[in-house]
Amino acid sequence: LLLSSSWVGYEQASCKGEQFVFEKGEYPRWDSWTNSRRSDSITSLRPIKVVRAPRQPLPTRQTKDSQEHKIVLYENPSFTGKKIEIIDDDVPSFHAHGYQEKVSSVRVQSGTWVGYQYPGYRGYQYLFEKGDYKD
């Protein structure tokens, strides 16, 4: 079963280019959904995949989605170098977690994540769904 309450918009057709993540709510002006200086519109859109196990009850407003979220970030391409593993955590800055390195590859073991170009949830957004991002 596929559920979605969030969407990802793209600056280019066919879901390409800069990404913009939208959760439930209203976005009356472009600067309420991006701080991009190069893009003030979206031209394609798709739901963000949220998958639940067949026997789990549907999440409601009173219950939190019980799926664990786990991501591993690597310093170098092809999952090498220093790494940091994050499980069910909100991380506004890697430095606060003792990780001073750049991120060059990502392995999402479960859940869906949104990464940002700069600390404090600033800059370009990157959507990471379950899978490997080698480079």
UniProtKB/TrEMBL annotation:
GO terms, molecular function: structural constituent of eye lens
Keyword Amino-acid biosynthesis: no
GO biological process, one term: lens development in camera-type eye
Keywords assigned: Acetylation, Eye lens protein, Repeat
SMART domains the UniProt entry points to: XTALbg
Cell membrane found in the keyword field: no
SUPFAM superfamilies noted in UniProt: gamma-Crystallin-like (SSF49695)
PROSITE patterns: CRYSTALLIN_BETA_GAMMA
Beta/gamma crystallin 'Greek key' domain span: 5-49, 69-110, 111-135
Organism domain of life: Eukaryota
Pfam families in UniProt: Crystall
Functional note: Crystallins are the dominant structural components of the vertebrate eye lens.
Oligomer status and interactors: Homo/heterodimer, or complexes of higher-order. The structure of beta-crystallin oligomers seems to be stabilized through interactions between the N-terminal arms.
Family to which this protein belongs: Belongs to the beta/gamma-crystallin family.
Protein name: Beta-crystallin B2
Gene name for this UniProt entry: Crybb2
